[in-house]
Design a protein that fits this description.
240 residues, alpha+beta, 57% helix, 11% strand, globular
Length: 240
């Protein structure tokens, strides 16, 4: 607060090791349970394999959605939809409802219609969510959101800047921050996402870069005063 090959998804339907000299206890344990290490390795490998498969699936869905948006010249609008979806599914109650296998798919589709209507999502964004429900992959929605942002950023030469603050910053201040990130990165576009984080006490942080690994930390008032001139953030007021 990492180039991959994507599997296209259609949106039309839903040598033996020597035992080291050790204690009698450890030797006895290894002798009594010779396959334990193997089982553990298999468990970890299976878990890692599933994680990789889920990541690949999420990436494929995101690429499919981006391709559709690009063909309709609605990349920006779809990115707005995706941000709305991220906020909606960040609520545990909503996410748990959709991943619950005991709830009928028709009820989930009805809920999606309500969400799409109240959030003004594009029809094909709603269709995309329905495909995830029908394919029983709605559990990947948070990963798909992240992957879509990556695809969108590459297609539009955009850097995502996540601004976390104690209180919501005004629009002109966010614009100033975006301009500074643009100067630092040389990106054609900067997209700002805001988060409220009371733990910052005062000020704000800006995380940016393709993986969000770069950070401007102005969460302490003293630090803000020291580098405000350098960043040319002017008259930003802190909520203390």
């Amino acid at each position: 607060m990492a180039a991959l090959q994507h599997t296209p998804i259609s949106l039309q339907s839903p040598p033996s090791a020597r035992i080291p000299r050790t204690s009698i206890h450890n030797l006895a344990f290894s002798t009594a349970f010779p396959s334990l290490r193997t089982r553990l390795k298999l468990t970890v490998a299976t878990s890692n394999g599933r994680a990789r498969m889920a990541s690949a699936a999420a990436s494929s869905y995101a690429v499919a959605l981006a391709d559709l948006a690009k063909s309709n010249n609605t990349l920006e609008k779809t990115c707005d939809d995706v941000e709305k979806i991220e906020k909606i599914f960040s609520e545990k109650q909503v996410y748990d409802f959709f991943i619950n296998p005991t709830i009928d798919a028709e009820k989930k589709r009805q809920m999606l219609d309500e969400i799409s209507s109240s959030s003004s999502l594009q029809p094909y964004t709603n269709n995309f969510l329905n495909i995830l429900v029908d394919a029983k992959r709605i559990d990947l929605i948070n990963e798909i959101v992240k992957e879509y942002e990556i695809v969108y950023n590459k297609l539009t030469d955009t850097v995502m800047a996540v601004v976390s603050s104690v209180v919501q910053l005004e629009a002109q201040h966010l614009t100033q921050i975006a301009k500074q990130v643009q100067k630092l990165t040389g990106a054609k576009n900067v997209r700002v996402k805001t988060l409220i984080d009371p733990t910052l006490v005062a000020g704000f942080t800006v995380r940016y870069g393709s993986t969000g690994s770069k950070l401007i930390d102005l969460s302490v008032k003293k630090q803000l005063e020291e580098i405000a001139t350098q960043l040319d953030l002017g008259d930003i007021k802190l909520g203390v």
